[in-house]
Amino acid sequence: MKLLEPGFNLQDVVLVPSPVAPEGPLVSCLMVSRGRLLPARHAIDCFRRQTYRQRELVIIDDNPASELAEFLVVMDDPLIRHVILPASQGSLGSLRNRALAESRGELVCQWDDDDLYDVRRIAWQVEALQTSGAQACFLRRWTLWWPAERRIAVSGERIWEGSMLARRTAVPAYPDQRRGEDSVLTGQIIADHRVVLMNAPELYCYTIHGGNTFHYQHFLGIYNSSSEFAGRQKYDNYLQLLGRRLPILDYAVALEQAGNLAAYRRPQPVPLPDRFIDPSRQRSGRTPSCSEPTVSIVVRSMGRSCLADALSSLVAQSYIKLEVVVVDATGGRHPPLPATIAADVRFRLVCAGRPLKRPAAANFGLEAATGEYIGFLDDDDLFDPEHVALLVRRILEPDHPDLVYAGLWLVDRYHRLTRKQCNPFNTLMFQFFNLIPAISVLFHRRVIELGCRFDESLEIFEDWDFWLQLASHVRIGRIEVPTQQYFIEAGTSGCSIGLNADPARAGHYSKHVRQRWQPCSSTLWREYTALVHDLLARFHDGERAELRPAMRALLRRYPEEPNIEFHLGRSYLAEGHVFSARRLYESAVSHNRSCPEFILSLARLWEAQGSPEDALSCLEEVRPALLKQTQVVDAEIIRLRRLLNSRRIFPGRGAGGGRMGRNEPCSCGSGARYKHCCGHSSARPELAVADQSLQVECDRLQVAGIEQYRCGELPAAGEYLAAANALLPGQPMVNHALALLAYDRGALDEAARYADVALATSTDSVITSFHRQLNYRRRRIVEAQLLREALRVSGRLLSADGVRLALEAARTILVLRCNESFPLAKDDFNGWQGGLHFFQADTEALPDVALLSWPEQGGVLVIDGVPEVLPPLLDSQLCTQVLMRVTRDCPAMLFEIAHAVPCGIGLVYPDEITARQVGLPGLVLRPTLPPAAFEIARPSPGIPFRIGLRGSCEVDGLHPLDAVLIRRLLASRLSVSVHGGTPLLRHFPPSALPSGLQLHGFDASLGNFLAGIDCLVLRRAPLASGEAALGFVAGALAAGCPLICADGLPGAELIVDGRNGFLVAAGDEATICERIARLRQDATLMQSISEEARATARQHWAAQELGCWTRVHMGLEV
């Protein structure tokens, strides 16, 4: 049992019910009935079977022609009183009040006429009241019986109102409501009195028969929230078990004979009104007036200094037909535009003659814009040079979306990339969260003609409200490439993080927007929950054969919808696929941090995997966002902290472990030292008050260090911050910045030491968030090592010879494409005589053309790349050998797939370095480059000498010291081009971009890039996966481009230093510059290296008459 005191303080209490019914006061069981013999006679039968003697049954019947009257006369039971009222005597609440008035007992008990009750119900609940001294008793769980659907379950935990047994003096009047009246009354009892909650689901059987006061979806939701399920296959067995103590078998027969079960029909989806957003309806886009429509970009400005960089990023746009409208929001006090920009006729400064808030400035900009398509740029953010061109290119595609948006980078106060964001458009989620920042969008101006405007009563989230206006009128498209830099801490809106966080303000205005669009969101939510609940019910019924395909189809309709992700994860977990489940749970939590079920399930999964540190971390991270069940989450946090604390104090419990040192990191996962965390009575130590002059100097050094950090000058930033830390040790933000510097360099242990100090003296959300991110990454490294070892000894991996034998025996190969970087192509299988099929990773089942050629034996499934979760095809139980082409180090998914297929898997690597990094047995088969890669003409050496660098479309893809190297090369009068280098704009402001620096987007042609440089420098970013590097190494060698390559990059094993390229140690900037100087000064050396590079590429990556996979199949050497 649990005791619930007023104020919601829960206490655990143990009750062992007596085998003999207790003696106690009279209990009045209160039944409200419509006078129907079915089902009331079965509830009456349950009353008469009760073991508790002092009881009465009061039946309030508002049917003058009641079927119960004659039945009760014949029964002639003195314990039952039947009160017949005139017809239509009011709501259910008023009828229950009449029953209270007719009761004579000191205790009252709700006794619904359509449910069943164990013979011990009254006795046990009375004993619970007497033992606990409570005023009321409720059940925490009860049994659910849904005969029409053949479902039996034990409910989830909550306070079930219908199970009330309480002292008459504690029961107020029921509200005058048709339904839900008992919920209101229960809330009043809980608020005013001590309540005991029993976990005895066998005492009460709630029957869902079609005539209940709530609708089908309501009960489907309750069923899906249950804690135990019988499943349809075992329904009859469980029904027989229940029949041993309840009159349920007679009840089931009576319901079926009476035809009552046909009353509950599954509701059909109701079409949405036209003004609402229907995700299944495809809207037609507006065809642009020409192939190069004019685009207007509106910039709302208060005249801040950052405006120059924002406008310079617009000057640099490759799209020419551009108009820029700068709205003076100051009311006439705006400084003039910079001279070079003001001279450009495409730029206009417009003023309303009065100060304008954000939405008013946006509306003024809409009125001033003349372009066919309109977008926005905030004055503290930046566009990549190709931003507008890429959006227009998407608009010109055949479906002609008239609202299109792009991905963006989130940049913090130190100008670090923290995350890449490009949410797919999900109509349902868009009702609750703003998924599209204003700067990401281009839309057709016809929406202005429809009357869509920014709401000037909103101080923030005016863009979210505007998109919701547009969404029902436009066709929406997106591009996933990040083309903007959104400085999340630079603004003053309060709806971001860190320096730009105001949770109260953000909460107020987000609630305002949600309330405005509630009719739309409610309609969408009802339709969605109907679909989801039906799928979940099938899952709980044990019907799982088609469950995941149906869920994935729903996820395609509602991309990244957290409820579907969570329940899809549950389906994986039910079959033991814990890493796929974990990945989906984490995604669900990231998309909705306010759902306790998501976060508690993820925490329990972490703990089950032996990582209570991760369980604690994820609970603490989302705790501020929770709106309900906070007590449960708080209790779990306390329990996990105590568990971790005891593990460190007694690490060898029972085996004589030593005590944890007070200066060691606390085991609870906070990262602070033990003496500052669980080993100390206070939460955080306070910093000593510093001398004023020392504090001023420390602040100066910190500001200088941050400024260097923002420029990408990490060594200089480290010197300033280290000096500040030496001057005044323990300053939280100084140590936080030092931790970030160490993290960016890949020195995770050093980062942890600084982060420990920062966390010990601060609760700043930015510090705690980074600390959890750091510890999460460190724990995944340890986990990866353990999984590798487990895979080595599992017997689930083929040896290199085993992979050869599998390919030699193959008759048909099916390639599942899970890799966008250097994927397998038909050239890799030149000369193959058997069946060969290529499919996308999300393929649910093989089409007929593949099934017809699929042999009973000799079929091989090749998973090309490492998927995020198990590929759908593995659900189909294909009887086949699985090979996996491993392009990155991900032991968790290798472990999952190896144990998901009957006979284990074989690993194929694209290069030897990837094979060494993964560290598991397998065969190296190099991919094939297209012929065009060998046809790139080498340019004549340029003046200045042109150096190429590479970026990567991942947060940690750029080398942290790229900005330092670039400035050093530019100072040597060299030209630098960076493929995928536009994120470096955060270090090189567009208004002061060096003339010798070119930053290309991620979609730039690699061939054109290689043709325009004299040599390529490839560095290994400390925290990047390196998956995309092989394509650059192979492409550079094929193009004959002299390559200076870090020795740990994929493909670098083919470079012979000084012959076909140069190898340098990671981070050795001096050697890189020395090799560039040699190439620059020796044209003969460049020519020699270029020729040897092409020869190497032809030998290892050129298409052959027999592809490498075919050669293995034929038993030939590769």
Describe this structure in words.
The chain has 1118 residues and is of the alpha/beta class. The protein folds into six domains: 27-258, Spore Coat Polysaccharide Biosynthesis Protein SpsA, Chain A; 295-501, Spore Coat Polysaccharide Biosynthesis Protein SpsA, Chain A (Alpha-Beta Complex), CATH 3.90.550; 518-645, Tetratricopeptide repeat domain (Serine Threonine Protein Phosphatase 5, Tetratricopeptide repeat, Alpha Horseshoe); 692-789, Tetratricopeptide repeat domain (Serine Threonine Protein Phosphatase 5, Tetratricopeptide repeat, Alpha Horseshoe); 795-924; 931-1101, 3-Layer(aba) Sandwich (Rossmann fold). The protein is built from 38 helices and 35 strands. α35 (1029-1039) links the parallel β33 (1015-1018) and β34.
List the keywords.
alpha/beta, Spore Coat Polysaccharide Biosynthesis Protein SpsA, Chain A, Serine Threonine Protein Phosphatase 5, Tetratricopeptide repeat, 9-stranded mixed sheet, 6 domains, 38 helices, 35 strands, 1118 residues, single chain
Quick description:
By secondary structure, this protein is an alpha/beta fold. It has 38 helices and 35 strands. Strands 2-1-12-8-11-6-3-4-5 form a 9-stranded mixed beta sheet, with helices on both faces. Strands 15, 16, 17, 18, 19, 20, 21, 22 and 23 form a 9-stranded mixed beta sheet that branches.
Helix content: 25-40%
Tell me what the CATH architecture of the largest domain is: Alpha-Beta Complex
Number of strands: 35
Tell me the structural class.
alpha/beta
State the end-to-end CA separation: 69 Å
CATH overall fold name of the largest domain: Spore Coat Polysaccharide Biosynthesis Protein SpsA, Chain A
Shape: globular
The stretches of 5 or more residues where confidence is low (pLDDT under 50) are 261-280, 652-660, 680-684
Note the total helix count: 38
Average pLDDT over all residues: 88
- Strand content of the residues, in percent? 15-25%
Q: Mind summarizing the main beta sheet? A: 9 strands, mixed
Specify the CATH class of the largest domain. Answer: Alpha Beta
Lateral arrangement of strands in the main beta sheet: 2-1-12-8-11-6-3-4-5
CATH homologous superfamily label of the largest domain: Spore Coat Polysaccharide Biosynthesis Protein SpsA, Chain A
